[in-house]
Structures are given as structure tokens and as C-alpha cells.
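Try this one yourself first.
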């Protein structure tokens, strides 16, 4: 449907229309008698008028869709400007070219951002045509235009709103207008999406509390002017409402501000000025020496007026990337949850560390938690979402290990050992346990939360059993979720059944009956709605209410829900789709041996193409499919089912006799308290065994007891012929002997097998026809012509595999080469993936190996390969080649592998390395650990798509062409030279362009580092661990560094290396010595937000220049054993949110501490000389956490009772603190009071008033 441009709202009979050709001039900010008109510069030709109030400064090429919208709102139409082009003239630079900098500079720095300038009537005097609209009309008018401008590309694209002066007030009005509409449910969904899409605001000298000195004649004053006056009640209410919306943290908003330091010349009314007290607001604020109208006109790109905004946009882009990297799949249609999400974020998660949702399965608990997770994940350093917690079983330690595997650090998986939980101690963490159902889950949650210890961390839980949530502790705030109300249920059903149109009037009655029959359960409404989408006939719809009424006769609630869901299963088009659904529900969603890709390969043999049938299941909401990449960059699928849908599938399988006998269900051959022990198993009717589809068998001593048989082959010979439907099987056989009857006998595996995993000990697997004279029998694969995946573990005498012509994946682990399976590898023409691991006996790859022209992935490791044929070069479809630790000095003949994306070689050498690099044009990862290579050729620079490079060999330099690898994000280098070992590594869970260097030895700056430093200009995240401080010079040229961590273990000082690092935002410095002016050198870095200084320095006092770090948000000083003074200039750090001082000999804190209005966390721990705190600590209005542990305090200042936001107070190990004051009970927000190992004799009675006491 073609979008229609919105009509503006009229004011006093006039429309405020902007015509590009119009040259008229409107009144300026002055009297009519003194009006002067100045010819404005012509509009830039590339400015496109999108609507009455929107002008497009820039839009990315259609081939590269925009990922961000930036809207610019101009201020008052001022003296000396042309009224009609304020949306352009306001944003001209003061450079000689007078460029429109949002149009010229921003697209070069942010090419994926769409940039729009907003125009509206901001005239301060009323005339017949201008100055007649009030702020309410402007807000409503622009909101309609914003909705229209974003409709075509989707409402969810992130937004940054930039306002100058009065433009900032317009922005606030827009947000409050949208919030009010959302609360009244008038266009609420659109309004909610708009507010949620906003990521940041930037205010250029916006007078939140009014402008000093601005007036206008009363007789021709515009309604807008009142919003600019000091102490205006409406303006104050608007700012308070907007501030409350921001403080509630319901939305992902960051606010930056830039204030003016000079007053602005006016007309005969004198000068006016937006004071700092009026414009200071938000997360990060700086001032510049400019007046009101030049504050948004930078002179060049290095100006703070531009750089401050640029930093904000960069922050937003990185945050959005973090959100996208962690974003969880949610239903496309959600009804009735937006308000609840906002309430949870704005209230419950703000006030409570633990929040739990309880309710019936299918009511929407998981969807709600995913929506919340997607909104807040980027705010936390560590995040973890564990879906279907009930499926994670074992001891608490086993569960803990499994949960850790799902943990993410800044959006990247933490691929390390299970003891990595130490990493989250003292770090912000957002942890979700979805569907807990065991006391071990509750115990684990409490353990993790206690060890984490961060007030900022949040824990979200769901369960069908409210008692399970209570088991997690009294601190859990439980929110019960009910089914949808009739109106929302109807809206959800029709949204799925009629996605692009209104339902016909004749369907109204049957829709209402279906809504009632579904009982408001979102899952049932979704599944039936998607089924009915493809059924336009009214008589088909009429069948559903009848079937739903029959379901109501079922007493058990779960059975009743499953019966309703089964209506959609019954309507699936054919048995093939139904069987695929049952396979997924009962087998392929259980994280067993095989995955969704294996399933697709298996089904391609049975049904032909499986994609269309999977699409049917997706369209019916019976299945969700996600796509990810493995460590080698290959795409892989994963199936997801709602628990109710999966349980329904299991129930249908049981009813139809279609059996998936896995350890999680009824394993035919497992002996336990839950399963039969006698030979009744073997005597089941053939038709029952004939319906078994999946089977996991371990033939052991227990099984022999069940069957009263000592011979495994006797057992298999009885069972195998009856498994006529078996498709997926794992078989482990523990055979130490074989009966005389089975010696030299062949047991054929079922011919219907598609996926097979054999783990055998002392048993022989052959596919040939000749008998083998051995003590035990043999398994034959000769009849398994349909196999698509075969895994062999610890097998002996594996024979000719050439009969398996449909085999696509073959994995052989720790098998003997007897049986000559290796000679038949070249005959497997359908093979796509081959893995050979741990084969210790010598073998050759056959000459026919080059016939595997469809082979995509080859991994050979820890094998004794004696010969690699020249035909190896013919494997032109290879995308991954990994050859590791092959015994012998075989040269790998690499050909023209133009599709190769991953090359990992840990072997002797590669033939013609220089020529090889010329051919590998698609290579993204290269890992070389080859003894036969002493240097890399210049052709390394031809690998222009390379993203990861790992090298380990004696190296002194890199080729000059190394600088051509512009896409390289990860470098891992281990080399040793002149007695000093240099290790350059990258942790896979860190973000791209990150680097770690460890230097062991006394060579201050090894040659390789001197050479390497010129290639590191793109590095953004760098850690250096060294013994000699001079090694840090490698940092000097990393001009794009964002985070830097340096650890020096020796006594040599770190030189002055920071002056070029103007983009640095995080600095962690730990060393024993330093140059005297080092602290002063990094105080000039205006972008710094986080400083951590640690070590036994001779530093006695911080430089007063530290107060110049206007962006600083976190300052940590620890183990500085000579630091005894913190300067008063600390009070100038208005953006500081966290201050930590640990184990330093300070005896006082500066009085200016009370000026830190943004400070949320103050930790002064184990400073044993600290005996008093400044009274002005009570002015810290934002303080939420106060840690005074280990100090020498005798008492707490009375002003602490003024800290209305304080949630955590830590006074443990305070040996001189004998009593707590009575006013402690006035801290109504306090939720944690830690008095461990303190000297308190007793607690005041008022302690009962604290939330943490209850």
C-alpha cells in the first residue's frame, strides 16, 4: 500500500508549508521596528524535501540499507538568519566553506546513517502567517511526519534526536506526546515502537530551565516564547515529565549535552544566555566557549562541538551492534506485552534485583523475557539467557558448567573453562533462567548472585510453579501472568490469520468463538491463527470452534492445551510433514548427537527436498528455525519448539506407536528402576519394534542379564530384523567374547538407517562380503545404502565403504586401519565432510582421493599419514582445510582452492607458499604452525578478505604487505627472538580489532614489536603484559585505540605514550613505577570515560588537571601505597558515575565530592587512614551504592540520611564503627546492608524500617 504524506495540523486557519523555491524572510528574534533581512545562502542542491517539515540531508545507497536515523531539530529563528531555511542555516560550520556539516561530515564518518533535518514554525513573533502554532501543535504535527518518514523502512530502526536550543524542547514534547498516546492506547503500538527505537538525544544548549534575558513584546508574542522563560511552569512540568521518563530507564536512552559559555547579543533588549544550570542534563555534558547561535556550528571536525556528538553516535552504533549480536528470536506479532515490558523495565527491574514471572505454559513468559533481554542486554558486561532451564539436569556443578557455556561477554561467547565464573565477580550481569523447575536451579541462582555481588546486576526468572520462584529467595519479586483479555486475544488471532487486511464481517462470529475456545492462551491463538491464514473458506473456520469445544471436555489442563494445539497438526498436508514434525519434536530438538543439518540431509534421502516442508511447519508456528555460524564460519540450522508443542509431538508419537527410544525417554535396553528388567522387552510384537524410529543402545553386562544372554551378537540378531522403521541409531558394544554360534557370522544393520554412530570395542565392522576369521562376529554395513552420516569410534577392521554412495558426512575417530577403509575414501562421491582423528597406524590417502570434488570440509589431526597424492589439488570445492599434527614430513599440495575460507595447517610445510596465497582469494582465516616455514612471502598481502591470522614460528618481522590486510580483526602471533618471547593473541569472545601482546624477557622493545607497531593503527582494544615499561612504546601509534590495558611487572617506568590517543575511552594501568608527568599526559584526552590506576607507584597526589576530564564516568584507584591526597578538582567531574578508592593511605576525601551529582557508586574500601567523610556526601543525589568496608571510620555523617536513592551500604570490617545512627531507618530505598565482621554492638530499632530487613 502506498504511503501518504501526512497533512500538517492547521493553526488559526494557516498551514505552515515550506516550499524550496520560497525566498521570503520571516521576523527575527527582535522587534518589528528593528527587523533586518539578510540574503541567505542558496539551499544545497542535494537537499531533498521529503514532506512539509522534513528535509533529507543524506541517505545511504539503496544497496546498503540505512542502519540508523539521525534527526536534527533547529532552534529559534534568530536575528541575521533567513526564516525559511533555519533547518539548514542552523547547521552551517564556521569554516571558510560554511559547510552544512550534518550533510557533509557525518555521512563520511557514518555512511550507514540516514540524516534528516526537521523544519517547523519557530518564529517568536506572531504575524498573519507565522508564529501562530503552539508547542502542542508542533509536537503532534511532527510526530505524524516522523511516523510517515519511518513507515517505509520499518519503525524499529534506531534513532538519534539532535536538538539546538528550542529544538531540544520540541524533542522532549514529541516524546511526552508519544508516551501519552501510548498510555491511552491511541496508536499506542506505533508510539511505543518510536520511543523504543530512540537510542540517544543530543542537546545543544537546550534551556531545560529557561533562558536568562529573553523577552518579546506582549502584543505580538508567539505562544512558543513562554517555553523559553525561566521559571515557566509548563516548561518545568515538561522537563520533569521527560526526566522521569529517562530516569525510569524504561527505554534505552543515552543523553549527551553541550552548553554555551558566552552570552548572546540580542537587539535593543540586550543579551541573553542559557546558563549551565539550565542546559546541564543527561549522562555526559561539556561546555564550549560559544554563544547560543554558534554553539552548534563547529569550525572543523576536531571541534568539541562535532566530536562530542560523534562520540555519542559511535557509542550508539556499538551498542546497537551488541544488541544485534545478542538479540533473541521473538514472535513477529506481540499483543498486550508492550505496556508490561515498559512497566517491568521502568519499575520492577529498577527496584528489584530479582524478578520472576509465573504462569501457565504458553502464556508468554518466554516471549516477555526475550523482549526485555533484547532491550537491556547491551547495558551489561555479562549476559546469559538460558531457555528451557528444565532440560538442564545434573548436579549443581554440572548445571553450572552448562549455564556458563551460554554466557556472553560484551556480546561474544565466553569460550573458556567452567571455572570462568570468577570473571563475573564484581561485574554487571544480566542472567535469565527460563522455566526453572528444580530446587538445584534456585540454589545455583543464589550462589551466582551472591558471588557476583553487584547491585547493578539483574536476574530474571520464569516458572510454571510459583513455589519454584519462591525457592529462589525472598528477594524475588514475583509477577503472575494471566491469559490475554478477549480484546487482545482477538487482535492476536486476526493479526496472524489476516496479516495484511481486516477480517471479513461474515467471520466476526466464528472469530469470537475461536477466541473464547482458545482461552486467551497466546500460543494456541498463534498456532491456530497461522493455520487459518491459509484457509479462506468460512466452512473450514467453522470446524475449529466445534473441535475446541470437544477439547474442553478434557479434565487435565495440559492435555486440554495439547488437544487444542493438535488441531493444527491434524491439518498438516501430508504424512511426510507430520513425520518430520514428530522427528523434530521427539529427537532433533534435544541436543542429542545430531543436529538440524543432519536432519535435513536425512530427510533429503527419504522425501527429496525438505525445505518446503520445514517452511510449512514454520508458517504454522509449530517450529522456529534459527541460523548461526560455527567456529569455522559455516552456517548451521537449529530447530526450536515451544515446550507445549514439543510435548504434544511426544504424546502423538506415543499414541501412534512411533517410538524414539532415547535415554531421555523409554530406552528398550536400559536397566533401571523405571524400565522393565525381564525378557518381555524382546518379546514385544514385531509391529511395535517396527515403529521405532530412533534408538540409543549400549550393550553391556546389564543388558546381557536382561536378555539372559552372554553374547551381544545373539541379542542383535534377535532385535535387528524387527527394526524395520529405524532411521537414527547410536550403538555402543562392550564385547569381550562371542558364542561359538556367532563366530565368523555377519549381523546386518537395518537397511533403513540414515544417521549412525558406532562406538565399538573389540568388534569388527566390515562392508565386504568375505567372511573374516576372528574371535567375534562382524557387523555389516553393506545394506545401509541410505546412510548420510556415519561416525565410527574405536572400530577395528573397518572395510570397504564404497557401497555408501549417499554418505555426505564421515567421521572416523581412533580406529585401526586394518580393513583398508582408507583406500575406498575416493569412491564416496557424495561426501561433503570428512574427519579423520587419532589414527595412529600408518595409512595413505589414495590417488582416487582427488575425485571427492564435492568435499567442502576436511579435518585431519593426530594421524600418521604417509602419503598425500597430487590429486589432492583437485578438491576445488573445499571451504575448510585443517591438517594438524600429522606424523611425518608430508608436504600439503594445495591447489586453486578459490572457495577456501579457513586454512589451518599445523604440520611440516606447504608447497609453494607464495603461489598458494595468490589463489586463496576467499580466505578469511589463516592459521600456520609449520616448522618448515621461516618467513611469510609478500603475497600474504593478497589475502584481502582475511579476518583472522594465527602464526607460530620463529619470526623477526612481517612482510610490508601485511598492511594490505585491511579486514584483519584478529592477529594471534607467538614468536621467540633473542631470548625474549613475544606472544600476540586475541580472545575469541572479545570484539573485533582487539589485540593482546605478552612479552616475556628483558629485551625492552623486541624487533618484531618495532616492526609490528606500524601495522596496528586500526586496533581499538589492546592489552599489553610486559616486564619492561619501555615496551609500551608500541602503543604510541595506535591512534584508533578505544580501550587500553597495560601491566608492567618490572620496575622500569612507563614512558609518556598517551598524547596521540585522542579516541581512548578506557585506560587500565598497572605498574610499579611511572614517569612523574604520566598522569598529566593523559588528562588531555577528552574522550576518556574510564580510568583504572593500580600498582605500587611513588604517586603521592593526583594532578589537579584530572578535573579537566569532563567525560570521565568511572575512576578507580587501587593499591597506590603512597597516594594520600585526592585533589579538590575531583568535583569538576560532573559526568562521574563511579569512584573507587581501594587500599590507598588517604585520610580524607575532598569537600568537592558533593558536587558529583551523577555519582551512582562510591567505594572507599580498606583505606585504613580514612577516619571521616565530608558532610557534603549527603548532596550525592544519585548515589545508589556506598562501600566503606575496611575503613577507620568512627561514625557516619548525618547527611547520609539525605541519600534517597541509596540501595546498598557496605560497612564490613569497620573495626572502629561501634554503633549505627537511628536515622539509618530513614533510608527507605536501602536493600542491602552488610555489617560482616564489623564492631557493631547492636542495631537501632529503626533498622526494621529498611526494605532489606523485611
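Now uncover the answer:
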Amino acid at each position: 500500500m502506498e504511503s501518504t504524506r501526512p497533512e500538517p495540523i492547521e493553526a488559526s486557519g494557516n498551514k505552515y508549508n515550506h516550499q524550496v523555491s520560497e525566498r521570503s524572510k520571516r521576523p527575527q528574534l527582535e522587534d518589528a521596528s528593528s527587523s533586518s533581512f539578510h540574503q541567505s545562502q542558496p539551499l544545497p542542491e542535494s537537499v531533498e524535501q521529503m514532506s512539509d517539515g522534513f528535509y533529507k540531508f543524506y541517505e545511504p545507497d539503496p544497496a546498503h540499507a540505512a542502519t540508523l536515523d539521525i534527526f536534527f531539530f533547529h532552534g529559534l529563528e534568530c536575528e541575521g538568519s533567513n526564516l525559511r531555511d533555519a533547518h539548514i542555516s542552523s547547521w552551517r560550520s564556521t569554516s571558510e566553506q560554511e559547510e552544512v556539516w550534518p550533510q557533509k561530515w557525518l555521512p563520511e564518518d557514518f555512511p550507514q546513517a540516514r540524516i534528516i533535518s526537521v523544519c517547523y514554525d519557530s518564529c517568536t513573533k506572531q504575524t498573519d502567517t507565522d508564529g501562530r502554532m503552539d508547542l502542542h501543535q508542533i509536537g503532534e504535527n511532527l510526530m505524524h511526519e516522523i511516523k510517515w518518514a519511518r513507515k517505509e523502512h520499518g519503525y524499529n530502526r534506531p534513532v538519534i534526536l539532535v536538538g539546538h536550543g528550542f529544538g531540544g524542547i520540541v524533542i522532549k514534547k514529541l516524546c511526552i506526546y508519544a508516551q501519552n498516546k501510548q498510555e491511552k492506547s491511541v496508536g499506542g503500538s506505533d508510539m511505543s515502537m518510536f520511543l523504543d527505537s530512540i537510542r540517544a538525544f543530543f542537546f545543544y544548549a537546550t534551556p531545560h530551565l529557561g533562558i536568562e534575558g529573553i523577552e518579546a513584546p506582549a502584543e505580538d508574542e508567539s505562544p512558543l516564547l513562554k517555553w523559553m522563560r525561566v521559571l515557566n511552569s509548563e516548561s518545568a512540568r515538561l522537563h520533569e515529565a521527560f526526566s522521569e521518563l529517562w530516569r525510569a530507564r524504561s527505554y534505552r536512552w543515552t543523553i549527551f549535552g553541550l552548553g554555551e559559555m558566552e552570552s548572546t547579543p540580542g537587539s535593543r533588549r540586550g543579551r541573553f544566555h542559557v546558563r549551565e544550570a539550565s542546559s546541564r542534563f543527561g549522562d555526559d555534558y561539556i561546555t564550549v566557549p560559544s554563544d547560543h547561535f554558534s554553539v552548534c556550528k563547529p569550525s572543523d571536525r576536531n571541534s568539541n562541538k562535532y566530536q562530542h556528538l560523534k562520540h555519542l553516535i559511535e557509542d550508539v552504533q556499538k551498542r546497537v551492534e551488541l544488541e544485534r549480536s545478542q538479540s533473541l528470536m521473538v514472535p513477529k506479532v506481540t499483543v498486550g506485552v508492550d505496556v508490561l515490558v515498559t512497566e517491568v523495565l521502568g519499575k520492577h527491574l529498577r527496584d528489584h534485583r530479582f524478578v520472576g514471572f509465573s504462569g501457565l505454559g504458553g502464556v508468554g513468559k518466554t516471549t516477555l523475557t526475550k523482549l526485555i533481554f533484547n532491550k537491556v542486554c547491551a547495558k551489561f558486561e555479562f549476559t546469559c539467557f538460558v531457555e528451557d532451564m528444565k532440560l538442564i539436569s545434573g548436579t549443581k556443578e554440572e548445571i553450572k558448567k552448562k549455564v556458563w557455556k551460554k554466557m556472553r561477554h560484551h556480546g561474544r561467547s565466553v569460550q573458556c573453562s567452567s571455572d570462568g565464573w570468577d570473571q563475573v565477580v564484581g561485574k554487571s550481569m544480566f542472567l535469565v533462567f527460563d522455566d526453572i523447575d528444580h530446587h538445584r536451579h534456585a540454589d545455583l541462582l543464589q550462589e551466582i548472585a551472591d558471588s557476583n555481588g553487584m547491585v547493578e546486576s539483574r536476574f530474571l526468572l520464569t516458572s510454571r510453579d510459583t513455589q519454584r520462584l519462591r525457592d529462589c529467595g525472598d528477594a524475588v519479586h514475583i509477577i503472575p501472568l494471566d491469559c490475554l483479555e478477549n480484546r487482545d486475544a482477538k487482535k492476536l488471532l486476526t493479526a496472524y490469520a489476516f496479516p495484511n487486511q481486516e477480517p471479513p464481517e461474515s467471520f466476526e462470529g466464528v472469530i469470537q468463538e475461536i477466541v473464547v475456545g482458545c482461552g486467551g492462551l497466546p500460543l494456541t491463538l498463534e498456532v491456530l491463527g497461522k493455520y487459518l491464514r491459509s484457509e479462506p473458506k468460512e466452512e473450514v473456520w467453522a470446524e475449529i470452534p466445534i473441535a475446541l469445544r470437544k477439547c474442553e471436555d478434557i479434565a487435565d489442563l495440559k492435555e486440554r492445551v495439547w488437544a487444542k494445539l493438535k488441531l493444527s497438526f491434524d491439518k498438516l498436508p501430508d504424512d511426510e510433514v507430520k513425520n518430520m514434525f514428530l522427528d523434530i519434536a521427539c529427537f532433533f530438538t534435544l541436543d542429542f548427537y545430531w543436529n538440524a543439518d543432519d536432519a535435513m540431509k536425512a530427510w533429503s534421502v527419504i522425501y527429496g527436498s525438505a525445505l518446503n516442508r520445514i517452511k510449512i511447519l514454520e508458517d504454522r508456528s509449530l517450529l522456529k528455525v534459527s541460523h548461526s555460524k560455527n567456529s569455522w564460519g559455516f552456517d548451521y540450522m537449529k530447530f526450536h519448539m515451544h515446550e507445549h508443542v514439543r510435548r504434544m509431538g511426544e504424546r502423538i508419537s506415543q499414541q501412534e506407536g512411533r517410538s524414539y527410544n532415547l535415554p531421555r525417554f523409554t530406552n528398550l535396553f536400559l536397566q533401571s528402576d523405571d524400565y522393565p528388567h525381564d525378557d518381555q522387552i524382546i518379546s514385544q510384537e514385531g509391529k511395535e519394534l517396527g515403529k521405532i524410529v530412533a534408538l540409543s543402545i549400549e550393550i553391556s553386562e546389564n543388558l546381557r542379564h536382561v536378555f539372559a544372554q552372554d553374547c551381544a551378537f545373539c541379542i542383535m540378531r534377535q532385535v535387528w530384523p524387527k527394526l524395520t522403521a529405524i532411521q537414527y541409531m547410536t550403538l555402543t558394544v562392550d564385547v569381550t567374547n562371542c558364542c561359538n554360534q556367532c563366530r565368523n557370522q555377519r549381523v546386518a544393520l537395518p537397511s533403513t538407517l540414515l544417521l549412525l554412530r558406532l562406538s565399538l570395542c573389540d568388534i569388527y565392522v566390515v562392508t565386504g562380503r568375505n567372511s573374516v576369521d576372528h574371535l567375534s562376529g562382524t557387523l555389516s554395513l553393506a545394506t545401509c545404502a541410505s546412510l548420510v552420516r556415519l561416525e565410527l569410534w574405536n572400530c577395528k577392521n573397518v572395510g570397504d565403504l564404497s557401497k555408501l554412495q549417499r554418505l555426505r558426512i564421515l567421521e572416523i575417530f581412533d580406529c585401526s586401519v586394518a580393513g583398508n577403509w582408507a583406500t575406498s575414501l575416493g569412491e564416496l562421491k557424495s561426501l561433503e565432510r570428512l574427519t579423520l582423528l587419532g589414527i595412529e597406524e600408518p595409512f595413505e590417502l589414495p590417488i582416487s582421493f582427488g575425485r571427492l570434488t564435492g568435499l567442502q570440509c576436511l579435518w585431519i589431526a593426530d594421524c600418521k599419514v604417509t602419503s598425500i597424492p597430487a590429486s589432492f589439488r583437485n578438491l576445488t570445492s573445499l571451504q575448510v582445510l585443517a591438517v594438524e599434527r600429522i606424523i611425518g614430513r608430508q608436504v600439503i599440495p594445495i591447489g586453486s582452492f578459490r572457495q577456501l575460507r579457513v586454512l589451518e595447517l599445523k604440520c611440516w610445510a606447504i608447497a609453494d607458499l607464495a603461489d598458494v596465497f595468490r589463489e586463496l582469494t576467499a580466505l578469511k582465516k589463516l592459521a600456520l604452525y609449520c616448522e618448515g616455514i621461516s618467513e611469510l612471502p609478500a603475497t600474504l598481502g593478497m589475502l584481502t578478505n582475511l579476518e583472522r591470522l594465527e602464526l607460530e614460528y620463529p619470526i623477526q618481522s612481517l612482510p610490508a604487505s601485511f598492511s594490505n590486510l585491511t579486514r584483519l580483526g584478529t592477529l594471534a602471533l607467538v614468536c621467540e627472538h633473542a631470548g625474549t618471547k613475544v606472544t600476540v593473541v586475541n580472545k575469541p569472545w572479545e570484539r573485533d580489532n582487539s589485540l593482546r601482546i605478552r612479552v616475556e624477557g628483558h629485551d625492552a622493545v623486541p624487533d618484531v614489536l618495532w616492526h609490528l607497531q606500524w601495522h596496528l593503527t586500526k586496533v581499538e582494544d589492546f592489552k599489553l603484559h610486559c616486564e619492561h615499561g619501555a615496551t609500551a612504546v608500541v602503543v604510541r601509534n595506535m591512534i584508533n585505540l578505544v580501550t587500553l590495558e597495560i601491566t608492567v611487572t618490572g620496575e622500569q617506568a612507563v614512558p609518556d605514550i598517551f598524547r596521540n590517543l585522542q579516541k581512548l575511552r578506557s585506560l587500565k594501568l598497572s605498574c610499579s613505577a611511572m614517569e612523574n608527568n604520566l598522569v598529566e599526559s593523559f588528562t588531555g584526552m577528552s574522550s576518556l570515560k574510564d580510568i583504572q590506576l593500580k600498582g605500587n607507584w611513588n604517586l603521592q597526589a593526583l594532578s589537579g588537571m584530572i578535573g579537566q576530564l569532563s567525560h570521565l564516568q568511572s575512576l578507580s584507584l587501587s593499591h597506590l601505597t603512597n597516594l594520600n591526597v585526592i585533589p579538590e578538582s575531583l568535583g569538576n567531574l560532573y559526568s562521574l558515575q563511579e569512584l573507587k578508592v581501594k587500599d590507598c593511605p588517604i585520610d580524607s576525601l575532598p569537600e568537592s565530592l558533593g558536587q558529583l551529582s551523577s555519582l551512582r557508586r562510591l567505594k572507599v574500601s580498606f583505606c585504613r587512614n580514612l577516619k571521616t567523610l565530608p558532610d557534603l556526601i549527603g548532596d550525592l543525589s544519585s548515589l545508589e551504592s556506598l562501600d566503606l568496608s575496611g575503613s577507620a571510620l568512627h561514625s557516619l555523617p548525618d547527611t547520609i540520611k539525605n541519600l534517597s536513592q541509596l540501595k546498598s551500604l557496605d560497612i564490613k570490617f569497620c573495626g572502629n564503627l561501634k554503633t549505627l545512627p537511628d536515622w539509618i531507618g530513614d533510608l527507605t530505598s536501602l536493600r542491602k546492608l552488610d555489617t560482616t565482621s564489623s564492631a557493631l554492638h547492636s542495631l537501632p530499632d529503626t533498622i526494621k524500617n529498611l526494605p532489606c530487613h523485611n
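Discussion: The CA atoms of residues 41 and 89 lie 8 Å apart. The chain is about 25% helix and 20% strand.
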